[in-house]
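Take a specimen:
=====
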Amino acid sequence: MSKRNARLLPQLCLVMGLAVLAVVLTAEKTPANSQGAAYSSWSDYGGSPDSMQYSSLKQINKSNVDQLKQAWFVPAPGPVGRFSFNPLVVDNVMYVVGKDMGIYALDAATGKQIWAHANSEGQPTNRGFNFWSSQDGKDQRLIFAVDSYMQELDAKTGKPILSFGTNGRVNLREGVGRDPATIGDIQNGTPGRVFENLIILGSAPGEMYNSPPGDLRAYDVHTGKIVWTFHTVPHPGEFGYDTMPPDAWKYIGGNNTWGEISLDVKRGIAYFPIGSPTYDLYGADRKGADLFGNTLLALDARTGKRLWHYQIVHHDLWDYDPTAAPKLLTIRHDGKMVDAVALAGKTGFLYVFDRVTGKPLWPIEERPVPKSDMPDEESWPTQPFPTYPKPFSRQIFTVNDVNPYLSPTEKARIHDIVANAKSEGIFTPVTVKGNQISAPGEMGGANQGSTAADPTTGMMYVKAYDLPTIHAMTQTQPVRANAAAASPLEQRGYALYSKTCIGCHGPNRDRITYPASIDFARFTTVLRSGNGEMPAFSETALKPADVEALAAYLKNPAAGEAAPEKKPTQKASAVFAPPPGQTRFYGPFGNIFRAENSLPAFSPPWSSIVAYDLNDGSIKWRRPIGTTPGLAEVGIVDTGSSLPNRNGPVATAGGLLIIASSADRMIQVLDKDTGKTIWETKLDANPDGIPAVYEVGGRQYIAFYATEGNRKKTLSHDPAKPGSQGYYVFALPQNVAKSQR
C-alpha cells in the first residue's frame, strides 16, 4: 500500500478543524428533536430535516389502529411515473405531484384541490419537494426540479417565482465542470434539504462511463445563485485528490448523493451518503481508494467545508452506493449520552458514528478481501467491516441458499450455477472468467427511504433486502455511436440506450426481444408499463420521440458499433469516448439472480424489517415484510416481498411502525416494540415510497402515494387495478378521533 493511499484508511480520515473541536466542547447532549423538529408535522421530506421518518402524533395508536378507514382518495392519472412521492403538509395544505405530472395543492383534510400548476416540461422531482418559508410566513416556496432545471412556486398560489434564477429557472447542468450540452438528466429524484436560506442538493448524473460528477451544491433560495460547491471527485489541491489518477476529475463521474440528506439543524451540519464513482463495476481508470465515493460525508451546511468523512467501501466494484438517510439519534453508549449518526448500507452493515467527530462507536476493522482478476484492475486489498451491530442482510450465497420453492430441475440448474460461480462474500470482485455473485447485491441491503428511527428510545428500523446479483463482465467496443453506419435517429437511439438501458441489458442488448418477436406498439407498451424487474418509463422520462429513436437503434444494432476506420462525430466522441489511456471497455451482464417464474434464486426471506436498539447495538426483533403473491396463494407465506421497493417505514409515538409493500399492494401497521402486525389493508394500486403522517383540525391522517406500475401479473407481483393511481389517505372515524383528543 502506497503512503499516499495509506492515509485514506478510515481511522486516519477523521481530521477535524479547530472550529469543529469547539463544537465538541460546547455542544449539549440533547435529543435530536431539540433541533427544532418537533416531529408533529410533515413539512419536510421524510418528516423532518434529520430524516427520522418519525411522527410524535399518537391519536392513532395500538389500541385503535384496527379502526382505520380511508378518509379520502385523489386520483393522479396520466403517465405511470418512476416515482414514489412523499407528500408535504404545511398549514393544512398538502403538496403533491398529480394529474399529468402537474403540481397540486390540496386540502389535507378532504383532498379538495386548492390550486394546480400545469407541467409540460417533464417529470418533477419524483420522491418529494422542498418547502421554504420566511420567518414571518409571508413568503412560502415550493422547490423542485423539472428537466434538470430547479424552480420555485409560491406555495400559496402555485404561481412561478420568476425572480429565482433566470426567468424562474436554474440550470442544474451548469457548474459541474463539464460541458452542459453533453449532460443528460442530472436532477435528483430525491429532494434536497432546506437550511436557513439555502437549498442543499445532491444529484443523479448517471452511473456509466463519462457521466458527470455528483458535486454537492447549495443555492440561495431567493436568487438561485450557487453559494458553495463541494467537489465529490476532488480537484487538484483538494483533500482526496491523490486517491484517484491525476486527471480523473476531468472524466470520472458519479460520487453523487442520489439518496437522502440529513441535517443537524442545531449544529449546522449536513450529512451526505455518497454513491459510487463511475463506472461502478470496473475501476481500471480510477486506480486508488476513490474518495469521496461510497462515503458518509459531514459538511458545514453554511459553507460546504468538510468536517469529517468515513469511506465505507474503498474503490467500489459492486455498486454498493449508500442511499438511505443517515439517522441522527441520541443514545446511551458506554454509560453516557452520545449524539450519533447511523447509516445503513447496501452491504447489509449498519455503521454508527459520533455525529460530531466521526469516530465509530463500535470498532470497524479493515480486513483483507478477494483480489480482482480483471485486466488492468487494482481492487483495494482491504475493506471496512463493522464488528457491531450485527448485519441486517445475508452477505454470501452458497449452494445451501438455493430457493427451496423452485422445481427440482430448476433447483439443480441454479445449484450448478452457484457451485461454479465466484461467491466469496460481499466483496467478491466481478470477473471475466464466468459468473460472480454479489450478496446482498446492488439492489439488496438498505436502499432509498428504507430506514426509520425513534428519537425518544434510540431504536432504528431497517427495511432489509436479500437479493443477490449475478454478473458476468464482457469486453466490448468503446461506447460510442458509429456515425458512418447510423442515421441521426439511430445515433440518438444508441445514446439513449447507453444512458438508460445498458446498465441492465449490457452492451450486447441481452434479454431484449424487440424487434424479432414484437411490433413497435408492443415495444412501446412494455416500455410504458414495465416488465418484471424493468420499471415503467413515463412519457416524461422517455418522450415519444425517444421511444422512436430507441426502436430505430434496436432494429439496427450495428449503429452502436464503432467503425475503426471512421472517426465518430465530435459530439458522439465527446460524450461516449472511453476514458484516457483505457485499452479495454467492460460492461455488465446481469441483475438480481432470478430463477423460473421470476422467483429469486436465493432462499427467503427476501425482505425483512430489522429493529435495532442502538443504546447497546442489539437486534430486538426481525421479521419478513410483504409477501410474494403467487406463493402466498398456495399457502407459502413469511417469504417477504421478492421485488425491491425503494420505500420504507415511519415510526410513531403511538407505538406503530407503518409500511407499504407494492408487490402485494398491502399497507401494514406493526407494533414497533415487537414487530407483530396489528392492522393491514390492501389497496387497488401499488403503494410505494414513504407515508406521510400529519394532523389537521385535531384529526391524525396517514397518506400514501400508490402507482399502477407494471400491470402484468406474476408470481412476484399483484398488479394494480386500472384507474387506481393516486393518493390514499387514512384516519380514524371522526367520533373515535374526537375521543382521543
Summary: The longest helix spans residues 408-420.
